[in-house]
Amino acid sequence: MAKNITPRATDYSKWYTDVVIQAKMADYSPVKGSMVIRPNGYAIWELIQKYLDLMFKDTGHVNAYFPLLIPESFMKKEAEHVEGFAPECAVVTHGGGQELEESLYIRPTSETIIWSMYKKWIMSYRDLPILINQWANVMRWEMRTRLFLRTSEFLWQEGHTAHATAEEAEEETLKMLNVYKTFAEEYLAIPVIAGRKSESEKFAGAVHTYSIEAMMQDKKALQAGTSHNLGQNFARAFDVQFQNKEGGRQYVYATSWGVSTRLIGALIMTHSDDNGLVLPPKLAQRPVVIVPIYRKDEEKTKVMAYADALYRELSEKHKVIFDDREQYKPGYKFAEWELQGIPLRIEIGPRDVENNKVVLVRRDTMKKDFVDRQAIAAVVDETLPRMQVEMLERARAFQKANTHKVESFDALKDIISGDGGFVSAHWCGDAACETRVKEATKATIRNIPFDRDEEKGACVCCGKPSEGRVIFSKAY
RNA sequence: CGGGGUGUGGCGCAGCCUGGUUAGCGCACCUGCCUUGGGAGCAGGGGGUCGGAGGUUCAAAUCCUCUCACCCCGACCA
C-alpha cells in the first residue's frame, strides 16, 4: 500500500529505516554514524523533553549544563568506568593548531566532570541532596549504528544526584526509574518491565542498575531507560566527602539516570505499521489534519469555507494542519499524513458539506467514521485520549502474548531461536548461567522484574535453586 | 575488526562482461492543460561526464592498478 516502505513482514529492519527516512524524522549526515534529526523527529524529542522535564521538576530536580569536554585524567579516575567507556570515546588532541597538553574526551556520559564539580560544591550535609539534571548531547564511538537506536552522537538527559545516605540514593534511583516507567506508559504508550539489571549488564561504575525494558514489534527487547545507584564509587574516585551532623566525614552517595533519543526509535517500533509512523496523540505536535476535497470551483468554494470554519473551531484547542495545497490530490495527502503518523485525519468533501458531516479517520486503526459537523469538536476531544489509552493496551496485549514462562533450557532456546519474545524463567543468579544462555541463544537477561512473583524454582540453566523469574530476550 | 555489497542528475537504478557517435530509464522538480472521495493523465522542460587518482588505448562509465566512502550481516552498546 505505502510506496517506498518495505513491509514489516519482509524485512523488519529495513521497514524501520524506511519509516524514519520517509517520514522525514531523520537523515544520514556526512559523518558516519551520526544523523540529522529533522523537524518531524525533533518535534517528538521536544515533546519528550517537555513532559519529562515537568516530571523531573515535580520530583524536585533542577537543570544545569556541564561542558562537552572532559580532561582525560578525569575519565581514568573510576576504574570500572574507564574500562567501560574509554574504548568508545572520541578524543580531542589538538586545539588552536597545537597539540594539547592533556587530551580532552568528548563526554560519553558526564559522571566524571560532574563529580569533579560536586567536590567543590559539597562540604556539609546541609549541601545535600543535590538533584541536578542536564539535557545534552553525548558521543560514543559505536561500531554499528542505527537511526535513533544507536548513533555516535545522541541527545539525552542525564540526572546526577548526590545524597548523604545509601538509603536516600537507593530511593532516588528507584523513584526516577518509576518516573521513566510512568512516562513510557502514559505518554509514549509503551508498556515496560521495570527491574534490576544483572551484574554483567549493569552500568560501568554502578552498584546497581535498574532499567525499563520494552518489547518491539519484532519481539526483541529495547532498553528504554536506566537508573543507576552509583554508591560511593564516584565520590571515592573524586574524593567528594561531606561533614555529617555528628562532625564526621564521609563519602557522598550518588545516582545517575538517563533516557535518550532512542525513545523515538522505541516509539516507532512499538506502534508504527506498514503505512508509516503511528504516533500516540500526546507525542504528536500536530494531532489533527484536515484534508479538503473538491472538483469544480463552486464545490471548492463551499468545501473550503466549511473546512476553514472547522479549522478555526478545532484550532482553539488543538494544533491542526489544514492541508489546502492545490498541487496534490486527496489520495496523495492521505498517504503523506499517514506516513507522518498524524493521529486524526478529517476529510471534507462536497458530500459532507451537503450532509453536514465530516469523515474522521484514526491513524492507529485506520477506521473511518462519519461524524456530525456539530459533534466533531467533542468527538476529537474524546477520541485523542482514547487512542492514547488503546495504543498502550494494544502494545501491552502484544507484550503479554509474547512473553512465555518456561521451565527448561531447551524450551528457552526454542522460543528465542524460534518465534522470539520475552522468556520468563528461573535463574540462580550465577553469571556463568547467564553467559551460557547468551552463547547458546544470543539472548540476555533484560532485567529482574520488580513485580515478579515470589516463587521458588530451579535455574533453567543449571537447576540450582532460584528465588524467582527473570526476563531473557534478544535485545537491540 | 570478520563476512557480504554498492558507488552513474536530488533519490532509485540500467549500461560495464563483448571499450566506439549527443550516457539512458523511473521517481522527484519546473511550465501548461486537465484532474481532485486512496499516492492521476498528457505535453513540454531543466539538471549528470559516470566516487577519486593513475594507467592501457586512436578511443574508457566500460579494461587494469591503487585509493576513498557508504550500506547490510556479525562481535560491543542508551
What separation lies between the terminal Cα atoms?
Answer: 28 Å
The helix/strand class is alpha+beta
CATH topology of the largest domain: BirA Bifunctional Protein, domain 2
How much of the sequence lies in strands comes to 25-35%
Task: Please state how the strands of the largest beta sheet are arranged side by side.
Answer: 3-7-8-14-11-10-9-22-25-21-20
Number of domains: 3
* Arithmetic mean pLDDT: 93
**Which percent range fits the helix content?**
25-40%
The number of helices is 14
Which radius of gyration do the C-alpha atoms yield? 25 Å
- Can you tell me the CATH class of the largest domain? Alpha Beta
Biggest sheet overview: 11 strands, mixed
Unreliable segments of 5+ consecutive residues: none
Quaternary structure type: single chain
Shape descriptor reads: globular
Number of separate strands: 25
The CATH H-level superfamily of the largest domain is Bira Bifunctional Protein, Domain 2
CATH architecture designation of the largest domain? 2-Layer Sandwich
